[in-house]
Write a structure and sequence with these properties.
425 residues, Spo0b-associated Gtp-binding Protein, Chain: A, Rossmann fold, 6-stranded mixed beta sheet, 9 helices, 22% strand, elongated
Length: 425
């Protein structure tokens, strides 16, 4: 099974809670605060594993949650940080944020890493809140929640050479004749519904060749196999355009050539610059020679290799020509510039979130925003001192003043996340 797109949920580990503790030692009658910080939560990290070829494993596990950090301890001991959750993906995986469509990472090389969901920091223990005015605080933070997001993984097949062409022109037969791959082959359209990979071994040289699903007109708009096919072409270093020169299905070989190149160009104009050679297939059949002559007259600048994938006529010469051409092509041509790809792999810092927004549901004022909701979750609501600190932070952020402007009066209900309280002047 070849799976090239899946949606999964990832969540970084929550930070451990800070501790409220005081020194209780003999001969130290007025021991100060000694509550340690919580440990950081683990990140969800994607790592490229060249041993993987598909995304099929993600069909059976769609939720990935990193472990949380340990809680802080007494005697000023911090909790241990959690291990990162390592998720292995095949080379050629692009990671998108499902909700925004933004590209998070483009993972190509073996061992490449990208942090997809950050773990939360540990909450501070009461040793951090000691001041001259309050030398024995009973305040400690809960751990910061880990980042959570829905992501889409898209696999773009990585191969040195991609075979393109209309359905039933002989791409699968050519792959089977030069590699150990065993694609299903039959006399009907769209035999190949998923890409097949094979290694062409020429002794001292070898390369990976992919038989990609057949194209039809309108593929750039998603018609037929459309985008599933075209996303795989993007990563090939060289395109072999296989043409049924005998016109077995009654199509014009030149029109096939022109139409598929137009589809590639419409999908991504940079594919027009990808090196390409033509394999004139089925040259052992009648009318092939006559059609080839007309084809060469219309595209005199294109290098054409005459082959018969069924009888292997001319196939060896074609493979050696491909190997020679690959030596002149850079190892990593992609549709994007290399600098863009490298930038994508690094975790992108999120923009500073809007502190809060205020809306009204019936008679309840709702304060929402990532920053304010995170502050609530990190506040120990069972501690009077912690609640007082939370109230001060809200005033400093301007929440109280904003509520007054929206018409909040003494005794009105305000909700932040799952926490409801009365507005007090």
């Amino acid at each position: 099974m070849f799976v090239d797109q899946v949606k999964i949920y990832v969540k970084g580990g929550d930070g451990g809670n800070g501790a409220v503790s005081f020194r209780r030692e003999k001969y130290v009658p007025l021991g100060g605060p000694a509550g340690g910080d919580g440990g950081r939560g683990g990140d969800v990290v994607f790592v490229v594993d060249e041993g993987l070829r598909t995304l099929v494993d993600f069909r059976y596990q769609r939720h990935f949650k990193a472990p949380r950090g340990e809680n802080g301890r007494n005697k000023s001991m911090h909790g241990a940080g959690a291990e990162d959750l390592i998720v292995r993906v095949p080379p050629g995986t692009t990671v998108y944020d499902t909700d925004t469509g933004e590209i998070i990472a483009d993972l190509v090389e073996h061992g490449q890493r990208a942090v997809i969901a950050k773990g939360g920091r540990g909450g501070r223990g009461n040793i951090r809140f000691a001041t001259s005015a309050n030398p024995a605080p009973e305040i400690a933070e809960n751990g910061e929640p880990g980042q959570e997001r829905n992501v889409t993984l898209e696999l773009k097949l990585i191969a040195d050479v991609g075979l393109v062409g209309y359905p039933s022109v002989g791409k699968s037969t050519l792959l089977a004749s030069v590699t150990a791959a065993k694609p299903k082959i039959a006399e009907y359209h769209f035999t190949t519904l998923t890409p097949n990979l094979g290694v062409v071994d020429l002794g001292e040289r070898s390369f990976v060749m992919a038989d990609l699903p057949g194209l039809i007109e309108g593929a750039h708009e998603g018609v037929g196999l459309g985008h599933q096919f075209l996303r795989h072409v993007e990563r090939t270093r060289l395109i072999i355009h296989v043409i049924d020169m005998a016109a077995v299905d009654g199509r014009d070989p030149y029109e096939d050539f022109r139409q598929i190149n137009e589809e590639l160009k419409l999908y991504n104009i940079k594919l027009e610059e990808r090196p390409q050679i033509v394999a004139a297939n089925k040259m052992d059949l009648p009318q092939a020679r006559e059609n080839l002559q007309r084809f060469k007259e219309k595209v005199p600048d294109i290098k054409v290799y005459e082959i018969s994938a069924a009888t292997k006529q001319g196939v060896q010469e074609l493979m050696y020509a491909v190997a020679d051409l690959l030596e002149t092509i850079p190892e990593k041509p992609t549709v994007e510039e290399v600098a863009e790809v490298e930038e994508r792999v690094v975790f992108r810092a999120e923009p500073e979130p809007i502190p809060f927004e205020i809306s009204k549901e019936d008679d309840v004022f709702v304060v929402s925003g990532e920053k304010i909701e995170k502050l609530v979750r990190m506040t120990n609501l069972n501690s009077y001192d912690s609640i007082q600190r939370f109230a001060r932070l809200m005033r400093n952020m301007g929440v109280d003043e904003a509520l007054r402007k929206r018409g909040a009066k003494d005794g009105d209900t305000v909700r932040i996340g799952d926490f409801e309280f009365e507005f007090v002047e």
